[in-house]
Amino acid sequence: MNRRTLLTSAALALALATTAFAQDEEITAGFIYIGPPGDGGWTYEHDQARQKMEAHFDGKVKTIYQENVPESADAERAITQMALTGADIIFTTSFGYMDPTIAVAQKFPDVKFEHATGYKRADNVSTYSARFYEGRAVQGHIAGKMTKTNKIGYIASVPIPEVIRGINSAYIHAKKVNPDVEFSVIWLYTWFDPAKEADAARALIENGADVVLQHTDSTAPQAAAQEAGNVITFGQASDMAEYAPMPRVSSIIDDWAPYYIARVQAVLDGTWESTDTWDGIGAGMVGIGEITDAVPADVKAEALALKEALASGEYHAFTGPLKKQDGSDWLAEGEVADDGTLAGMDFYVEGLTAEIPN
Amino acid sequence: MLRLEKRPQPSQLWMVLSPIIAVFLTMIVGGIMFAILGKPPFEAIKVIFWDPLFNDQFAAYSRPQLLVKAGPLILIAIGLSIGFKAGIWNIGAEGQYIMGAICGAGAGLAFYPSESFLIFPAMVLAGGLGGWAWAMVPAVLKTRFGTNEILVSLMLTYVAQSILISVSSGLLRNPEGMGFPGSRNFKQWDAAFNAELIANTGLHWGVVTALIAVIGAYLLMSRHIMGFNIRLTGEAPRAARFSGVKPARVVFFCLGIAGLLAGAAGLFEVTGPAGQLTGSFNAGYGFTAIIVAFLGRLHPVGILLAGLLMALTYIGGELAQLMLGLPGAAIQLFQGMMLFFLLAADVFTNFRLRFGKKGVA
Predict the structure, then answer these.
(1) Distance (Å) from the C-alpha of residue A283 to the closest C-alpha of chain B?
(2) Mean pLDDT, chain B, as a whole number?
(3) Does the pLDDT value for residue B359 go beyond 70?
(4) Does B343 share its domain with B321?
(5) What are the transmembrane regions (chain A) (predicted)?
(6) In chain A, which residue's Cα lies nearest the Cα of B52?
(7) Fold annotation for A132-253+286-312
(8) What is the pTM assigned to this prediction?
(9) Do A72 and B280 touch (CB under 8 A)?
(10) Residues 6+ apart with CB under 8 A from A254
């Protein structure tokens, strides 16, 4: 034990002397990442949150992580090894880790598991995700107002409900302020591949898109837009502020730190239970990055008003009247979508021209 | 002056020695790299090479995992090595691996939820045939139109990848999966599950098949006339033709067997360790197997050892990330170093180092 930890423990012991049942032994929290923490997007934010959580507990919690874990048989081994090395709680931060997480959780009933963006739970497996679609609504609004060519490009990752929700939400709100707007969606079937992301962005720009939205994790589309000039983008998962004020005019930021702190605290307190968390702008899990001066002041004001309305719950991003792509009715005037439908969303709303790949 | 002199014959000693030297050099240079990164070098090397096998805490788990990871690599590499011996460069094992998995999984899912004991053998057969058929495309194109099998087989990998994405989110998607891509989980369907044959050994049908393939390839190459013809075609194509070896037959045989084994490996993986056909189950085994084949000197026993060594560095590398916080890129660099040193040491198999000027007679 070096001097620093000795001091911390001493301080802790003092602080805990007054609380009778506090636990002061260290616990380990593990993280499985789909990309490298340096991706500047999805994994970056999870890693930032990991560091914030570790700092918050000030020596009480040790964190470990493994990066670049493919969504293949390797995932199950990575999670198992993490459990074997003594992790008390493991966060698996990509959709494709769902079945491996459940399989490992069965073998380690005493370890707590937290799977991001999935839908399978167990006594020791919770799921958590963010209502990114609320951020997409703000994005769609700005995009619809800003586009001059009326063509908006969308780099989509894997056709799961989360991604489809984002496309729908962005489209609905772009269309609302600009009836002529058209969306072209490119599916990459990967969450992180800078080369493919850059290619997709260039292809969309060449086809006339002057707004590029992305649901992939790297900053490559931002770089491609910067190269092309006069194209705007939004930071995805992370602020991507190094591309502000142009092309990046705003961003959707995932803030996992409060959740990670709360869940690890629950393990420390012995109050951890399997839950399903789905928080949005209101709870602070989804943040809207600074809207730069490249956006006209009135558009910015409207976007911020929309953000406030979403945060307070006064407005829902999926509010009727809305029809499905095939023209059938979905939501009546004033009706809002229920979480069940949103969680399994496998259809586009009316007006989107492409088909969801299947 | 230092210079290289060609040996009259490849040195047997160096052939065996160079992989061992390569591993040692990797440990030394890798250790220096770890030290520069601020991690304890000896401990890192120990975590990578020793802990997966002998650590009290988790070796019981990671030792069987070596077989799980090495199984498909060995199976694919054996098939590839036969072709490489004949100078037939099948770079598309990844595609054959994927197509095997798709065909096998598809054949099984067509009968869901039957519990017949025939399901799994039928899937293996369909998987092997799927990989075989995919490898026949470059074979036919090469023999009929003289196309280059390197390009054709490689390009077909990307086609296979696209088909995989399409069927995993369409045709073979789990109807109970709430609209998410990915097939049914074979682990939850006993008739199709490629389970461990003996609990906690990692030994599944794919590993058994890989071991059989090692023995089979050894017999083929050393005892059978086809093996002789293959070697002859690779070493002296003209001589082979004069002695009556039909080049087209060798092409069909080599690509066929590589496709068959890669396809079977894909099926074993998807019904076993991966459990589910998804757009990303393949994880590049078909490409890594090329490295394994060369690391094993294209010899069946060498490939067996090379596959295990490769698996060890993967699993040890993962543990080093977990326990020492080594970055993933450093592990990849470490693996790359091993290949680099192997190629470097290989020079001495065919050349020897001489001091002084070129001999003046």
Answers:
(1) 27
(2) 90
(3) no
(4) no
(5) none
(6) A81
(7) Rossmann fold (3.40.50)
(8) 0.84
(9) yes
(10) A42, A45, A46, A130, A132, A237, A238, A285, A286, A287
